[in-house]
Amino acid sequence: QVQLVESGGGLVQPGGSLRLSCAASSIIYSVYLMGWYRQAPGKERELVATITSGGSTNYADSAKGRYTISGDNAKNTVYLQMNSLKPEDTAVYYCTMSTYYAMDYWGKGTLVTVSS
After folding, report:
1. Is the Cβ–Cβ distance between 50 and 104 less than 8 Å?
2. Which residues contact 16 (CB under 8 A, 6 or more apart)?
3. From CA 86, how far away is CA 16, in angstroms rounded?
4. What pLDDT is recorded for position 115?
5. From the centroid of its chain, how far is CA 42?
6. Residues 61-67: contacts with CB within 8 Å, 24+ apart?
7. C-alpha span between 91 and 85 (Å, rounded)
8. According to the model, what pLDDT value does residue 104 have?
9. pLDDT confidence of residue 9
10. In terms of DSSP bridges, do strands 110-114 and 10-12 run parallel, antiparallel, or are they unpaired?
């Protein structure tokens, strides 16, 4: 069973930066989309950013200008560089990978806490 494993979460002060990483435990073929979602306490899970196999990116309005998604389809890795973090960015961040054969994979999440 393929698993996605996130890392890089933690406690950071407002204005700080974190880089999240996500890697698959074994090869996933035909990935066309990778992304990050987040879920804050008491809120629904929301899209943060996605990147296609062709390198096109999409960001939630809350992430634009502060977050950068990158990844390597062939290596099944995706990253999220987060700068200028705010307390409202506090959430569990999940990575996801989608394949051309309609399989979606999700990680278990990594907690990001932005607090002074």
Report:
1. no
2. 85, 114
3. 8
4. 97
5. 19
6. 62/88, 62/89
7. 12
8. 94
9. 97
10. parallel
DSSP-assigned states of every residue in 27-49: ---SEEEEEEEEE-TTS--EEEE
Query: What pLDDT does 73 receive?
Result: 86
Cβ(37)–Cβ(93) below 8 Å: yes
- What value does the mean pLDDT take over residues 88-109? 95
Tally DSSP H helices, then E strands, for the chain: 0, 11
Q: Is residue 7 a contact partner of residue 111, using CB atoms and an 8 Å limit? A: no
What pLDDT sits at residue 102?
84
pLDDT digits (tens, 9 = 90+) for 40-88: 999 999 999 999 999 999 999 999 999 999 999 889 999 999 999 999 9
Q: Within a 13 Å sphere around the CA of 108, how many CA atoms are in the beta-carbon half? A: 5
